[in-house]
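I have been asked to look over a protein record a colleague put together. The record follows directly below this note.
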Amino acid sequence: YNKYKDRGMYGLHMFDTVFSFNEEWLQIWANEYKRRGLHKKLPFTVFARPDQHNMSEKKIKLLAEAGCAQVRMGIESGDSDVRKTELRKPGCSNNIILDRVQLLNKYGILAKTYSIIGFPHDTKESIWKTLKFADNPFVQTRFVLSYSPIPGTPMAAKVEKMNRESNIQKYSFHFSGGVKNKNYGPHYINLMLLWCYVVFGLQLAWLSFRSSPLKFFNIVPSRIYWGWRWGNPLLLTTLYSLIHASYWPHWKRVQKKQWIKANAGLEKSLSVVAGGPDVKFMPAENPLMNKEA
């Protein structure tokens, strides 16, 4: 931190794939991070599997107390069964994921999700189901990527032919177009990715702008210009200009207001149904999260 604090470092990204796996280690790490005072100086993000073990309320609270700004979760599909059988992610049903998102909001941690379209089994209906599940008002950043077969994985073994011959960027999650699939045309995935960039990108731009207009105009134009000058794709350059770490404290203010408003509305409705003001709100009961039946 001392080496880079004066070089424009706003935050820290942890790239351990499941940062919160070991609770004892996480407790030791969080205590040390706080002992050094970094929880007040250097906000950080982590990857975490969205299940009840890796994202228990106790672990989320530990992360929040240590200064965690954002948790990044791979939700991949909008179908719990696909996530369990095809993607080998048991314990990550839609309802459990929605509960994790609620807990993150409860403790003031931003949520970022990654969804994937273009799987070998995908249909137009399953893709829209995934996008609908990803469009959660309590998730601040939503990334949608295209499936790229990785040799040696179980799903890649099911793919007769990987769709890479005419694709210069073979392993690009942004441009691969998924695998060849008779359920939709050859350009459908790229068109859907473009739709996601536009729709989710505009939502993110609005969040960034309304949380801090000055920060927005200070960052976005210059980042887009220099990204374009350095040869980066315009859409990606625009997207990454909207997720700068300096937005995090401003996003959190909006998040807190939204969460308080949602809870207040639910407490009022529950009080009316129950016939009194003594009904207590529990995060896992929030109907705004659109749980499965």
Q: What stands out?
A: Confidence is low (pLDDT under 50) at residues 162-175, 270-293.
